[in-house]
Here is the input.
Amino acid sequence: MLCRHVFAAAQRAVRAGAPRMGARYSTKPGGSWHGGRSTADAVSDIIYKTPTAQKTAHHMHVLNCFMQDEPGILTRATGIMAARGYNIDSVVVSRTEIPGLSRMTITVNGEQAVVQQARKQLEDLPQVWAVVDLSDAKVVEREILLIKLSTLGADTLACAANACTPRQPLSPSTVHRRERRLAAEDAEDAPSDAPYLQVVESSKRLSYIRNLANMFGARVADVGADCCIVELCAKSERVDAFMKIVAPFGILEAARSGRMAMSRAAKLSLFEESPQESAEKAEAPDLSHLPPS
Here is the structure.
């Protein structure tokens, strides 16, 4: 409400002939424009510069499916989502603390009504115990990333066939032939002290990568002569941001575990009632007006 009044005041000031937004003026009586900005202009700048969220009918839904550990259940569960035309963003299946019971976390983007229908179909499977929708609940989300970065530069992507993500389908003979040709060219053009220069350059880039990893709470899990592997456990949005930032170093390979979610603790203090207990007390009927039995 305050932002609305300030924004309206800024519009009235512009219509009254005040200078454009962002102009400076004096707060002394007399109103000469120099020195600092008014409160209306400052708040208006913040409102205009703040990006607005795009409204869309599709939302990200997170479903926790508890099922028996039987062969073929994963295909049946994902087939229900695929039958409705959804492209599943991620699926994580793991064992729980109960023997024979597995937890499958499905992340899918779609409309609320259609996702609820798919949820009911999942619950109808005989191997499924329960399906919990965590889309609107308070949850703790994490995703694990293993990313291999080049320490010799983004242009040095030539590596062994099993050391990086294949950029295009090539036969093993073609890969070996290209590797031999690149090695021969490097041997002819490289000076005698090239390995030492590469070691120095690799150490510098590794230091930059380690600093970025520390800012994101990641760690360097493995180091080689020409590359390193960084491990990050964070939210999916933070993983996306980290991959964009380290992309200039040269991404040789990347693997993501998918989104895992677990509901937060309902009670934050032992001296307070949980929202569920308060709601149950409020819904309890008043029996004081009834005659004694």
Notes: The mean pLDDT is 76. Residues 194-215 form the longest helix (22 residues). Helices lie at 2-15, 39-49, 73-83, 112-123, 172-189, 194-215, 236-246, 275-283.
